[in-house]
Amino acid sequence: xxxxxxxxxHERIKPFIHKTPVLTSELLDEIAGCQxxxxxxxxxxxxxxxxxxxxxxxxxxxxxxxxxxVVTHSSGNFAQAVSLAxxxxxxxxxxxxxxNAPQVKKDGVKTYEGTIIECPSxxxxxxxxAKKIQEEKGxxxxxxxxxxxxxxxxxxxxxxxxxxxxxxxxxxxxxxxxGLLAGTALAAHFFSxxxxxxxxxxxEADDAYRSLQxxxxxxxxxxxxxxxxxxxxxxxxxxxxxxxxxxxIIRVEEGEIINAMKLIWERMxxxxxxxxxxxxxxxxxDKEDYRNKNIGxxxxxxxxxxxxxxxx
Amino acid sequence: xxxxxxxxxHERIKPFIHKTPVLTSELLDEIAGCQxxxxxxxxxxxxxxxxxxxxxxxxxxxxxxxxxxVVTHSSGNFAQAVSLAxxxxxxxxxxxxxxNAPQVKKDGVKTYEGTIIECPSxxxxxxxxAKKIQEEKGxxxxxxxxxxxxxxxxxxxxxxxxxxxxxxxxxxxxxxxxGLLAGTALAAHFFSxxxxxxxxxxxEADDAYRSLQxxxxxxxxxxxxxxxxxxxxxxxxxxxxxxxxxxxIIRVEEGEIINAMKLIWERMxxxxxxxxxxxxxxxxxDKEDYRNKNIGxxxxxxxxxxxxxxxx
Lengths: 312, 312
Hints:
- The structure is a homodimer.
- The first copy, chain A, has helices spanning 3-13, 26-32, 50-59, 63-68, 77-89, 103-111, 123-137, 148-164, 179-191, 207-214, 239-245, 254-268, 274-285, and strands at 22-23, 35-40, 70-72, 93-98, 115-119, 140-141, 170-174, 196-202, 246-252, 294-299.
- The first copy, chain A, is α/β, with parallel strands linked by helices.
- Chain A folds into two domains: 3-48 and 151-299, Rossmann fold (3-Layer(aba) Sandwich); 51-141, Rossmann fold (3-Layer(aba) Sandwich), CATH 3.40.50.
- The mean pLDDT of chain A is 95.
- The interface between A and B is medium-sized, with 18 and 18 residues.
């Protein structure tokens, strides 16, 4: 894992991703008390940074592997990312989804022509079903966050951000499964002498915070957070990177997440999903520590169900 | 009214406005069957193109006039635009608003430190109250759409768009009071040999469409449209320009407006208000007429009440 791997990853996925814009807002700078540079992965293809990791994972397969297809059991943005990247590369994508997954998520996968395989909603059933497809079809399993190709792919967002703004003091990301956080931490380590990486995490799913405290991968007992993308836990590939290179994880309340999301919608006029608002909520919570600093924030995604918004 | 006036207007207001970005979307191009360039005035200061006209109107006043302040009785985006432009120029802004105006609109004006004067909700009361302030304070009345300085200010959005994309075949705008449409038509006339200007208008408030038919300014009997920015009618300054330079007005159903708005939110991940979605709805309705053309759309604004959205 070195700087050249990340550069090569970026070159590999470039034709399949957008170079997303970096936006700023005087009003949000005033509220946060610092200069914030928002890397808009909500404008990424299929609406989230996950496209980067999925594209890299599939592009890293051999021709023979591509022939047999890929399988994943994410029901969120990674499922759409795998479907779209597979479609662009002529690969079959099998997406295992719980029967009770929201229609809007199934529709997302269908838009990008992924093949949905339904199963009962427990994680055991999802894993068993994915396993079965691996065996039957010879498909390669892709993990949404705990796989080197995915981690490096996600890291290219921070790499682009630091190329454009080399003077950042900090980059904030959300932490769910840990792929984006680990990739960002590597990018900051490789491409900046001073930039530290901070994560925001909901109190309601604070497994990553507790993992850093205990030194081992913790799981969530409950995960009653509006930030539905952050309910998963870390893995053995990304946890060591996070331990080594991440400065701090700041936990935030549900109300803080919704307020941060509303501020970004109202002031920046862009759509971000709840998980995506978590780093800005974290920055606001600890704003005294970051006064007048240059802060990058990875706005991770913008896929929301417009008929079910958390605003009053 | 000539090209030089428009160039001078742009120079005058430049320090007070954003040069807004132009966004594109492969998915929306596919849906519309043409190449669409969205000029994002929803990212303009205070969230709408109205900032351009308001800034120009106030900058065109003498020192003495500025001293005495300005007054308007718009309750929408123009009120916020006048408040913000006045604040930046150290001018008092008196905003006449109906007592029953939504709190979100009053808050918008307060954010930018405009002085709200409440009155009963009829147009007669609003005009009388504004008149009284003109007399008492010597304040200059600013009209949201029927005033040359405002029309030219609004035209600078299309001017920027044509500077960046000189090859446009058409520019679409919404039509409410007619300031944006007239300004855009002048800009296209001055800055392009081939670009035609088309407006979208709700069937529920189709006064402009009927005005072009009858050759005189028509009003709306009712205005039950979700596009709350388009309920007003044309005026004697902008109507002749619209008659002379506008190609066509396309009327759209309420459902088409909401669908277009939803498409822009979901696919482009940006927030636009209902009025702002009308031109894209118009393009979709008559898409066969614009197949494979280069179309500019002025996305007019992004000020919505998030607790009262038209989605199911």
